[in-house]
Amino acid sequence: MNIQEYNATVIGKVMITPDIMILTINADEARSEFEAGQNMLLGLYGYEKRSSNSEPELLPAEANKLIKRPYSIASAKSETRQLEFYISQVKSGQLTSRLFNLTIGDRLYLGTKISGLFRLDETPEGSDIVMVATGTGIAPYISFLRSHIIERPESKMVVIQGAAHLWDLGYYSELTFLEKTYANFFYVPTLTDADDRWDGYQLCIEDLLRDEVLQNEFNITPDPERTHFFVSGKPEMVAQVSEWLHDYGYTRHHPDDPGELYVEEF
Ligand SMILES: Cc1cc2nc3c(=O)[nH]c(=O)nc-3n(C[C@H](O)[C@H](O)[C@H](O)COP(=O)(O)OP(=O)(O)OC[C@H]3O[C@@H](n4cnc5c(N)ncnc54)[C@H](O)[C@@H]3O)c2cc1C
């Protein structure tokens, strides 16, 4: 059997809700610099204990098999050793139920390869950037902003983040702070199940876009010549926003067929 050794240590764990966390890990050996928006594999063996609030696995993991899954890196691209991930627990899942049981000092596997074409550096300089996310789909945008916001003062950059409740909006403080700090950055959180204290948008992302909030509030036109869109999160949201953008002439970005719509589903 090919045993892969654990090669990283948990150095930070912040619970945003019982099923969403920010996990920071320190790699034993530095990785190469990555491009903002890329992902790496995290892994744990099936014999590791699962979290106390997990549910029976849909497909029970084999004890001696390393369970590996890709996760978007939320850190700035210059970080090569201490890497941050924003993870949602699938209660019946194999890996996340084990990741949620980790504590500071625990060991795990971190892939050596860095992958992904969901990258801000593929967009032309000066183009406006709209980043749309639900759930942990916000992670790559945190990396985009931490890595590039200073370098792109001429681009308008907008994050539209959809969630049910205020407490589900991971990175809310950081994004609010960036909006106050950078004149070209706009943060648009929208909640579908907000309480009375929330005075922001209360629409699902698809309706917010159809209501022309981008055009009316930020003077951003969905024009493939001027504005590039990133869409990341739940497959249904990604499909609906992609469809809306197709009507404006957007095509999906591929390495050998560049488009203005970048999509990541998870
Ligand atoms: C490029 C890429 C980047 C990703 N980045 C992130 C990230 O930053 N943060 C993050 O939390 N996840 C991310 N994911 C998803 C991650 O790779 C795993 O698929 C996810 O964490 C579930 O793993 P698991 O082993 O716990 O569940 P599995 O054991 O793989 O799945 C168990 C069951 O749950 C279903 N399932 C899987 N994922 C979900 C889900 N999200 N919601 C509901 N049901 C689900 C499966 O279809 C399956 O039936 C990313 C995926 C890709 C492809």
Question: In a few lines, what is going on in this structure?
Answer:
By secondary structure, the protein is α/β, with parallel strands linked by helices.
Fold and architecture overview:
- It is a single chain.
- By secondary structure, this protein is α/β, with parallel strands linked by helices.
- The protein folds into 2 domains: 103 residues, Beta Barrel (Elongation Factor Tu (Ef-tu), domain 3), CATH 2.40.30.10; 146 residues, Nucleotide-binding domain of ferredoxin-NADP reductase (FNR) module (Rossmann fold), CATH 3.40.50.
- 18% of the residues lie in helices and 29% in strands.
- The chain has 6 helices and 11 strands.
- The strands form 2 sheets. The chain has a 6-stranded antiparallel beta sheet. Strands 9-8-7-10-11 form a 5-stranded parallel beta sheet, sandwiched between helices.
- A hairpin with a 2-residue loop joins β1 and β2.
- The radius of gyration is 19 Å and the shape is globular.
- The chain starts with 7 loop residues before the first strand and ends with a strand.
- The mean pLDDT is 96.
- The protein binds flavin-adenine dinucleotide.
- Flavin-adenine dinucleotide (FAD) binds next to β4, β5 and α1.
- Flavin-adenine dinucleotide binds next to β4, β5 and α1.
